[in-house]
Amino acid sequence: MEINFVWASFTMYFLFVQVIRTLGLREVWYFGLQYLDIKGYTAWLNMNKRVTAQDCKKKDPLVFKLLVKYYPEDIQNELIQDVTQRLFFLQVKELVLTDQYYCPPETAVLLASYAAQAKFGDYNKSDHPPGYLLEDTILPQRVTDQHSLSKEQWEERIQVWHQDHQGMMREDAIMEYLKISQDLEMYGVNYFDIRNKKGTDLYLGVDSLGLKIEKDISALCTCSFFFQDFMFYASRLQVNKRILSLCMGNHELYMRRRQPDSIEIQQMKSQATDEKHQRLADRAMLEDERKMREAAEMEREKAQTDMVNMQKKLDVVQKETQRAQIELENQMAHAKKLDEERRSALEEAQHFEKMRIEAEEAKSNLEQQAFTQQTNQEQLVSMRELCESAVVIDSIDPDLNPCKIESNKLPCSVWVIAACLYEDGDYETADFHPMSVDQQRSEENRVTESNKNSHLQMQLKKLQNDLEGARNEKENTKYDNLHLENVKAGRDKYKTLRQIRMGNTKQRIDEFEAL
């Protein structure tokens, strides 16, 4: 975020107030305005001087950066406002990614997952396709150079941790990032080049817990002081002033933390608590709405599925109905055919029955005719015999001829039949054939965040073992080698702090002068 001002004649305090008001920042004691001096060294602006009186490069426009100048001892319990936590998060993340804070590979992956949760929220496969993390810098360049893993493989490992943060609020993810970061050795330390009386080149580190003397920035501190007086030499007078300013500011905050909270701090904490509760309530309401929406969506999908299934069943029933209809039509056609065949057979049977009756009648008639014929024949025989006898008698006495007498008595039909019989000859009959379907100096008793959380420690250990197989030891820096030695020896920044604070101030000064 860039803010432009044109009041070069005003004091830096006025400029600082305008910046913090623009951001809505109230925890102003942690921040300062940083710039590059005439010789290219980073420095902090003096709030009591005018802009034109600072030893910065005279160019237009003058560029200043609002950065964290003093770090708290315990981020979780000291940072109050969300905007303060956000600014700390952005600055610490930048220092980790640019390798100004040394970070082990497995811790870098964990921090990247919290950064992803803070930026994207809960992981969703449809909203976060492969490559959603590759648009930004997610790991220090040193870490990627030390391992033979592609960007996609690094993204897969970060994605697994991102999924593990499901349901975590963005503000909580930022706080988790800062809690892990504050356990790093270089966290919150401002380093300066100094020399002791012997002329040994050393590094002086100034942080919220005191002063640290190191031979190498990558090494753990050799000795520590509670801001008591001791002598060292710096390359420039301005460096001494900056060291003094940092020491005074850190000492003031150190003492303030061990006193009861002021009314302003209490009011800010109360407001922050109310805002957090409101945020939790809003989140719960949104979660309920999301669940209701998901339930409604599931019901809608279920209804659609049921409708599709019912449509499929309806299609099956329709097909079965059509098939049954066709089969019924076929059966009806077959029944009609059978009925026609039955009627035809019945008609034929009736016809045959009629023919049989007619044949029987004809047979009966023929039998009657045969009987009549036989009778007539018998009568004719009798008449022939009678006629023959009549001829004989007629020859004797014509008046006594019996033929004449009987001829008058016989009906004419007999004569007709007889004539027919003699005319037509014999009769023949045909056979009938019928047909058949924390407290004071509580920093010495603190432990790292990973030691507090066994689950987190196991996850880091698992990820470390996973990355060891792909690690290229030739790419190890002195920070890596030192980190490995510290891990093997079981050392961390808080154990070292307790060790180097043992003894009195004179012993530590003698140790410093002996370096």
From TrEMBL:
Residues 437-456 are annotated as: Disordered. Residues 440-449 have a biased composition (Basic and acidic residues). One of its GO terms (cellular component) is plasma membrane. It is a peripheral membrane protein. Keywords: Cell membrane, Coiled coil, Membrane. Its main location: membrane. Residues 1-291 form the FERM domain. The keyword Metal-binding does not apply. It is found in: Cell membrane. GO terms for molecular function: actin binding. It comes from the Eukaryota. Transmembrane segments: none annotated. Pfam families: ERM_C, FERM_M, FERM_N. This is FERM domain-containing protein. It comes from Eptatretus burgeri. The lineage of its organism: Eukaryota, Metazoa, Chordata, Craniata, Vertebrata.
